[in-house]
Amino acid sequence: MKNPNWLREELILALDLYFKLSFGQMDGRNPLVKSLSEELKALGLHQYIPDTVSFRSPNSVSLKLANFKSFDPGRSGTGMEGSGLLDRQVWNEFHTDRARLAVEAGRIRANKTRLPVERDVSSDGSATEPTDEYAAVDIDDETDPHEHSYPDPDAVLQSLRAFGYSLDTAVADLIDNSITAEATEIRITFGLDGVDSFLRIEDNGQGMSLAELRTAMRIGSISPLTTRSSSDLGRFGLGLKTASFSQCRRLTVKTRQESAVFTRVWDLDNVKDWVLGTYPVNSSSETNLGNVMSASGTIVLWEDLDRLIEIGDTTRDKENFYRKLEALKIHLGLIFHRYIEEGSLTIYVGTNPVAPFNPFDISDNFPSKELSASVYSLGTSRVEIQPYILPHESRLAQHEIKKLDIIRGWNEHQGIFLYRNRRLILDGTWLDLPFRKKENQRLVRIQVDIPNTADKEWHIDVKKAHAKVPDALRKQFMQICVDAIEEGKRVYSHRGSYVRRRDEDDQTFVWKARQQHGRRAYVINDKHPVYEAICQLLGSEARLFRDYIRIIAETLPVGMLINDFTDSKTVVETDVNGDKTILNDMYENTLHALTKAGMSREQALQELNRMEIFHTLNR
């Protein structure tokens, strides 16, 4: 009786061996061919084997390898023609994707196998049928020092959902891929329709070939140890999958490169055996996916948005969804502000372009103060550090104050802003340095630029949301931060003071701090030129003025101020708050008082122009 035809699983194992052998190693005497022969016998994929001796013998395996040679353009004319349709199908499916072939072969080997039970032979030479022809057993070859251990696909993919992405960070990770593909325009569109809701991201980048798409969809597509292009914003080869699965259960990617268009689908409801879909799962998905509109580019489609929306309350769903989209626009404007500002990238959310949000350039009228920049070498990498001190909020317009406070609050954005290839990965952090966020440091911003070749030294994690200062640069970073913090405190604390004179020890403040018995008290400076001028003009009535000033100092609402200042979303400001009409009146009245008290006009003007409160007048 003829032995059964080769099954797909057997052909996959044979093709896997084919690519491991050189031209002259494919005959039945090769130990690897013999080993595969024994393995195929042991797999137990067939219900009945009439001849266990000739079944998948080394020679029959060798013939099958020869069939594959007939398909191989690199070995044209050397194989045996006449192979079956299934042989050709397996060849076409795997010959350009050997990594996937290895995974499939490992999966087949890892499964439970069935071994044929030996049959008794009767006295007349005929075989008796066993009561249980095959017994389910595990192959346990103790002669092999190694064995494969393959993860369960459902368990792995469900675990990837727990990486802690928000919508903001997930979309930003996908935009990283688009920038790496040299996209200049990214469009984020969405549809809110209950279970059919979707979010779609399309770019006009280079697109992908079929092999590149398969690689991109593979879990852990690129090792973090691999040397990347200087423009590559990726890290572990997980971003597309982990970011997407954090928000949805079905990920569809459609890509176009020249005239070729390819689609692949991960569906968490159908991930058995690591099987990728090759076309949209239904007509609704196909409609949502649409076509790549540019000559090349990629579409990422999220569906079954179980982590993004809650199905049930339509009104609440819409409110929450649109609130998240508004927050997304602000987040993307911050993370990619340098790309947007330089004109190399435009991002649309819906029909609206995302506006850049530069955390160091916050005022239309008052630039941030740049402290000394530093450049260090770390191995082959270059680290650039630029500290800034923001202008005091008393100088800012109301819309500028709101802009600063719009994401996490004024205080939360103090500290280091870490950029990797000009993409902001961490903002408002002191990393692992021994500094805490404090109210009087809220004006300090330190821009740090690193390349993607420094990931290991900076301990960049999968989400690009954690980093540590390298030990080799820790001392230098500490000093830069200390200097920036001191300058930031000075600007924050002295908004009502004279600016520093040429002699740095010669300063005059409206308020003075006194330390007594372990306590600090704030009093108004009675040596201030304006204070003295008023007392001189009042003459004998000056006593009442002095008493009133003491009352002001003694009733300073310290508790309320502390409460307001520790609230990161509260900006404490004065009544005047930069109103130039009021400031001009104050300036003229004070000038008049000083000259009337005996000061020359020139001397009075010098005193006034040293007072920070009048700096905005540019007089």
UniProtKB/TrEMBL annotation:
GO molecular-function terms, A-Z: kinase activity
Signal sequence region: none
Keywords: Kinase, Transferase
Segments of this protein annotated with the region Disordered: 116-135
UniProt xrefs under InterPro entries: HATPase_C_sf (IPR036890)
Protein name: Histidine kinase/DNA gyrase B/HSP90-like ATPase
